Structure formats: structure tokens, C-alpha cells
Amino acid sequence: MDPSDQKLFTVVDFVIFGVLLAASLGIGLYHALSGGRQRTTQEFLMADRSMKCLPVSLSLIASFQSAVAIIGVPAEIYTHGTQYWFIGCAYILGLLIPAHVFIPILYRLRLSSAYQYLELRFSKPVRICGTLTFIFQMVIYMGVCVYTPAFALNAVTGFELWGTVLATGLVCTLYTTIGGLKAVIWTDVFQTLVMFAGQLAVIVVGVQKTGGVSEVWRKVWEGNRISALDLNPDPTERHTFWTLGVGGVFLMLSLYGVNQAQVQRYLSARTEKDAVRSCYMVFPSLQLALALSCVMGLVMFACYCGEDHSSKLGTASRDAMVISFVMDMLQGLPGLPGLFIACLFSAALSTISSAFNSLATVTMEDLIKPHFPAMTEARATLLSKALAMSYGLLCLAMAYLTHLMGDSVLQVALKIFGMVGGPILGLFCLGIFFPWANSTVSIRRAQHGVACFPTVRFYSLSYMWYSAFNCSTVILIGLIISFLTGPMKAEDVTPGTVYPLLGKLLCFLPERHKKKLCGVTPQVQTVRSRAAPRIVKLVFTRGTSTECILVSGVVAFAL
Ligand SMILES: CC(C)(CO)[C@@H](O)C(=O)NCCC(=O)O
Ligand code: NA
């Protein structure tokens, strides 16, 4: 460790970092002692379904914005230019479709676990398959999330690696276990603000030290870092408009449409309107988050002019180089290095807390509760807390596994989303958009989707296509098998589980033709849902103008 690094952190910096951890614990403690004191699973796992849209929306961004993005995106922009920024185009459909298709269906069924949908639409084994896939995905992902900031910080400042991993993991486990989803959401709100503040501080100081906005612009322009829209149709090209703007939509759908961490937030909103509104509010904040990390990459380029400093670090990692840049910038400004460390750990904490709580929820709702229908509420709540805690401890073990992997952290995370999240998205799309898809063979479909992975062609695809490729494979195979084995009959489809896409598109046709084509009558009907003994109202035929525009837009886009 360089002796100058020791001066990097002043007392103020440690205080700021300490305040972050203490405030998170404080919010956990507050929610453990207020409200219903976390004595029901409804409160612990679903926040009493009473959240307003602002906290839900900030929490939604926090779930999948971890230190991986904060470090990985600037590293990507520094090395390859601003092409990655075009993923922002995918946010439009990637949020509109969840808001108008996934949220209405899932919210009206009053589910607790998103995978309950798969049982209502298909069968129990499909639900279990969805749940296990989700658990697999999140367990690997949370290891990456907790390891990344600790590793990068260790490489640059000599912060004790495993001490940092332990501190983050344990603090997060503690507030998640005592405070439930309310604590997770409110800490997310606080942590998201710290995250933005930390990134903004680096950019402002970085621009000043480089000589102002125009100087930064001149250097990145001369250094060829401003990328034009790359329309190369080659699907093996890593980042083009097609991989980012189209492949990215599927990535966004798998995260914001059907991932339990997000679905649980939508379901915790007090009304469907709040859920939809929170999804809309994600758009500007996610664009801001993307812009901040891209600009940080550009400022870093302007400052270093493309020199490769990674060899100086010994680790040869561009991810560590980002931290090294930040520390160079913030050196001598008391409080700011601490603010950035707080920003990194806020990002990590908010992601792993969502993972712990959503993992506890699906384990409880999908794997345990169905086998013990007579379990008392008190026992179920206690068990949920034990589960949240166990996943917290498992996270530490997963951090160790991540330690053994290579590759850029951003790519690792996005590959996991695509490889594992893609097939689940496919199952949901099959159920929601294709009324003919039947239930008996869905498992084989999912397995087939997974079996497609090892093919060489798949690996040469840009990783941004993984979600789209796996999702489409599942849908295609599912449809073929459904038609071969006899498509689902309209009357067998659980009401409220299908989005009558064709019915909406062909709204000019008479009712009876629509019924033939769509499989289900897209009519206003009142049914008793199997999900909960509660009246569920389907109002899909009276599509709002937004929905009509959305549906036509998607179809035009697909053509
Ligand atoms: C999910 C996206 C792609 C949305 O921009 C972004 O947040 C991202 O690249 N996340 C990487 C994973 C992470 O930050 O943990
Ligand atoms: Na986060």
C-alpha cells in the first residue's frame, strides 16, 4: 500500500461511511418497532401492501443498480466509448410493457410471489421451476454484488477485503431480518439518494480538475470516445443499437417485468395506480443513473486521456481503475472519498437487501407454505425472518465463489440476467400473450431453453442477446409443443392470466371472431380468482389509449 493512500481517508470520511451503516440499521430498527412490529408475513414480506409510489420507484431502481453498474459502466465507457449509453433507448419499452401488461395482470391476481402466476396459468411444476431458477439467479448475483465494491476498494486503498464483505453482508442481513420489506424499501430510498450524490460529487470535482466542461468534451471527442449509433446487424457484435436497444428491452423485461424483487415492490404498492406510476417514475431516475455513470467514464477518460493505469494496480482490472481514478480526484477533499465509498456500498446494500427479502418471499410462498397450509401466522413470520437471515449468510459464501471468477463484473451480472432470467421471461410471455399455450409440457420447454446454453452459436452471440434469445426459444418451443399436444381451451385458462394482445390489435373485428382468434373472450368480466378469495375485475377490452398506442408501437417495432 502506498503511504500516500493512508492520508486518503480522514475522520470525516469514516464518519460518513459510518453514518450510512448506522442510518440503514436505524431504519431497520424503526420498522421493527413501529407499525405492526413485523408480526405478520403480510407486513414482513409485502410491507402491508401500503406503499406509495415515490418510495416504491426509488426502491425499484435500487434493486438492480449495484456497485457493478457504478464501477462497471464507467470502465466500459472509458475503454469502448459511449455506445453502451444507447441502452437508455431500451428503457422506454422496457418500462412501458411492465407498466401496462405485467403490473395489471400480476397486481389484480393479488399474488405474493410472481411465480404463483405460473401455477395459475400452467401448473405447479412450472411454478417450482420458475422459483428455483429465480433463486439460482439471485444467489449468484448477490455474491457478485457484495464482492465487487469490496474487491475494487481493496485493490486501490488496501481496505481489508473480507472485512468489508463481512461488514456489508452482516449489516444488511440485520436490517433486512428485523425490518422486513418496509425497511428494505425505505433504506433503498435513502441509499439511492446517497448513490446519486456520490456519483455527482465525482463528476463535479473531476470536471473541475480536468479544466471545465469544454475541456472534457474536447478530450473525449479527440479521443474518439463519443460513439455514433452503430447499426451493424451482426448479432455477435457486443454493443450495437440492436443488441442494446432491442436485446436490452428483453433484459429490462426480465428484470422489471417478471423478477420477483421488482414484482414484490409493485405488489407492495397500495393501489394498482401507485404501482404503475412508480414504474413510470423509474424512467427518469434510471436515465439519470445511466447518464451519471456514463459521464463519469467520460470524465475519467478526459483526465487520463486513455492511458492504461490498470497495470500500476497490479490487478490489471479496469474495474479497480475506476476506484483509483475516483480516489485521485477526491484526494485532499475531506468527506468526499467517504461519500463515494458510501455511494458504492449504498448501491451494494440496496441490491442485496432486495435479494434477501425476495428470496425469503419465494422460498416461503412457493416452496414451504404449500406443504404446510395449517402453519400459524406467527410461525410463518418467524420462518420468513430465519430465511432472510439464512440468505444473508449464504450471500457471504457466494462472495467467496465470485472471488474465484474472472471477467468484467458488468458482463458477469448481465450474462446471469440473460442466461437465467431470459427463460423465466419466456415462460411468463408464453402464458400472458399466448392463450393457446398449454400446461402439460411447459417444464420440458423450460428445460429445453436451458439445454440450449452450451451450443457454440449461443456463446458467439453478443451477451446482450441472451435474454431475447432464451425468451424467444422458450416461447417458440412452447408454442410448437402446445399445438402438437392440443392447444389450451379458452375455458381452461384461469381468468385474469392472459393479456389479449390479438384481441386488442383486432379491436375492429366482431366479438365472436375475436373469441376464435384470441382463445379467450377479452370482455369485461367479474370472476372469483383462485389466487385469493377476492373479486378480480378484468377490464382489458376497455384498453386505455396508452395501451392501444403501446400495443401498436410494439407490433410496429417487431415488424
Ligand atoms: C439493469 C441495468 C442494465 C439498467 O440500466 C443496469 O442497472 C445495469 O447495468 N446493471 C448492472 C447490474 C448491477 O448494477 O448490479
Ligand atoms: Na442497489
TrEMBL record:
Any Gene Ontology biological process: sodium ion transport
Superkingdom classification of source: Eukaryota
Protein location: Cell membrane
Keyword Transmembrane helix (UniProt): yes
GO cellular component: plasma membrane
GO MF term (any one): monoatomic ion transmembrane transporter activity
Family the UniProt entry places it in: Belongs to the sodium:solute symporter (SSF) (TC 2.A.21) family.
Protein name: Solute carrier family 5 member 6
Organism: Sparus aurata
